[in-house]
Amino acid sequence: MWSQSIVAAAILLAGVSGLPASEATDNFHLGPNTVVLDGTRLLETKLQLLFEPWNKQLKTALGDLTTQADSWLSQGPWSVTTSQKTPPGGDLHDYASQAPYYWPSNTTNGCPYINRDGVLNPETLLYTDHANRGTMFQASYILSLAWYYTGKEAYGKHAGDILRTWFLANDTRMNPNLNHAQIIPCQNTGRSIGIIDFSQEYTSILDAAAILATGAPGWTQSDVNGFHEWNVEFLDWLVNSPFGIEELAEGNNHGTFASMQIAGIALFVGNETLAKQQVLDAEPRLTDYVTANGSQPLELVRTRSWHYSTFDLVAYTRLAAIGQHVGVDLWNFKGPQGQSINAAVDFIVPAATNSTPWPYPELEFLAYGATDVVHAAADAGNKIAKAAVSKLQPPPGGDLWLLRPAAEQLDASF
Q1: Domains and their CATH numbers in the chain
Q2: Hey, which of 81, 114, 181, 381 has its CA 20 to 30 A from 323?
Q3: Model-level pTM?
Q4: Which parts of the chain sit beneath pLDDT 70?
Q5: Burial of residue 190, with CB atoms counted within 10 A of its CB: 0-12 exposed, 13-18 middle, 19 or more buried
Q6: Nearest to 262 by CA among 242, 247, 284, 252
């Protein structure tokens, strides 16, 4: 209903905002040029908030969003250059992190480091880039959305400052590579597997930048151009570096997220051909790594099998969302034995709704970890998911799906 009258609604919005009607229709009738989120849907929701003040679900979601945004106003910006531990090579502009599950052995110097899957080594916190990256991702995304829906300048300005500090300002910017991510002491100075540090959330930053580009105060054309060029360089590294090639070939969540990140960045910088190919490549990936009953064997063997099963589905559902931008219907793809995103969602629904206990290893079962992926499947027409939505556990801070309908990782990961 809203999409049929969206230009007229934009003109009404112009009357409220003080913009000329022609500028309103030019700037608003398609919504933000997002790569995962549906920009038109964001605009429709914005108009609903304006013209349907009786909508309690939207008002509740907006209250939860602005509460989170308010908490971020006094935090940041962050930079890789403030790390407590200097990266290998000595360049503070290089992002660096340490493998979270590797612990020193009982030797004089701690070498070799030994994997204890799912158990965080607190020594890794000395590389503050990892923690700062996570807060930077969350803060800029929430603040950008809050600015878009409320028009409050403080949200938009702070979101822009956070992105500018991390990616663009000469003194504080990050180099566009992940050469030193998830280091194992005594063994290496970085690993391909470390790309997951960015790929799990970075596409939300692309959407945040797209939202700010619709007119956020302080986010200039120079910022838009600079962020575009940063992503051109980062995409080149992801596609052509040995680490990037190795990570993309992984069969578990690492490969799915690597593909999703490449697709999102490619679409963001205008390489629709590459974006489309990554979405199409998800079809053989689903065939190979999701079973007929929807289980994901490579995730079920982990000590946090629930977390990683839902985590991998975040990547698949976001790939499907990117597919909608480039004309590929990944939601309705089925492998020769019925392997599909929908089958994988159906597999987790009983545990997501607490109808059936999760029968696989899990150090910390959090039902709300699946909330977003079930929402995504429901929106895509999955009947089992639709029936489950009312039974889902909302994540801490509230369910924001109505305001940012693209799956996010909701249960914390190291």
Answers
A1: 1-30 (no CATH), 31-249 (1.50.10.100), 291-414 (no CATH)
A2: 181
A3: 0.93
A4: 1-29, 413-414
A5: buried
A6: 247
